[in-house]
Structures are given as structure tokens and as C-alpha cells.
């Protein structure tokens, strides 16, 4: 009778290789096997729970509070009063912060000696 599983007395993996792998991905090195095994269990279980929460969020339509449509309506209707949420304030802050990076050529200041004079082509 053949068994597909048997108890192995020797380890089937190298602790050094496992530590190198996890430290390259997550920057974490483990001092003993218990922490390594806990982390090997913790990472996939956490990923499964996060994806389950994402599915529940989609199922309950938690994206129904769409603040982008509120901004569009406010742009079209001058009498529409927007209620400023943290999302809108965050978006406005990001837009103001990224405005300089959106068009970097407008903010460049060159010294006179590098600018072309006359027929430089």
C-alpha cells in the first residue's frame, strides 16, 4: 500500500534560503522557525481577508457615495452647494501639489549662458 504523504525527519526547505526570500520581498529576517512559519501563515491569510473585505464592499455598494459626480455637478450648476468632505479636500490638495509636476517645462529657469543666442540651430 502506497501512501502519498509520509513524515520526513529532515526539513524540506532551507532556513537561510527562506530568510533571504522574505527579506528581499518584505525586508524581514526571522530569528527562528516559529516566526517564519507564523509569517508564512499570516501573509496569505491577511491577503484573503483583505480580498474578502473588498468583495463585501463591492457587494454592499460602498462606492455609491461618489464625490466625483458631485464635483461635476458643482462645475455645471453655480448654485449647487458642495459639502466638503475629506475626499474632496484631499483631491484638491493633491491637484495643487501636483500642478507643478504636471507641466514641469513652465517652471524651468535657465541661466543666460545656456540659452541660445542668434542663429543657434
Question: Outline of this structure?
Answer:
By secondary structure, this protein is mostly helical.
Please describe the topology of this protein.
Blueprint: H1 15-26, H2 33-59, H3 67-76, H4 86-102
Description:
This protein is mostly helical and 121 residues long. Among the domains are: 15-59; 67-101, no CATH class. It has helices spanning 15-26, 33-59, 67-76, 86-102. The protein is flat and about 80 Å long. GO terms for molecular function: chlorophyll binding; metal ion binding; oxidoreductase activity. Belongs to the reaction center PufL/M/PsbA/D family.
Rg, Cα atoms, Å: 28 Å
Number of strands: 0
Structural class: mainly alpha
Query: What does the average pLDDT come to?
Result: 77
Distance between the termini: 86 Å
User: Element order, helices and strands?
Assistant: HHHH
Q: Please give the oligomerization state of what you see.
A: single chain
The biggest sheet amounts to: none
The low-confidence parts are: none
Membrane topology: Multi-pass membrane protein
Keywords: Acetylation, Chlorophyll, Chloroplast, Chromophore, Electron transport, Iron, Magnesium, Membrane, Metal-binding, Oxidoreductase, Phosphoprotein, Photosynthesis, Photosystem II, Plastid, Transmembrane, Transmembrane helix, Transport
GO molecular function: chlorophyll binding; metal ion binding; oxidoreductase activity
InterPro entries: D1/D2 (IPR055266), Photo_II_D1/D2_sf (IPR036854), Photo_RC_L/M (IPR000484)
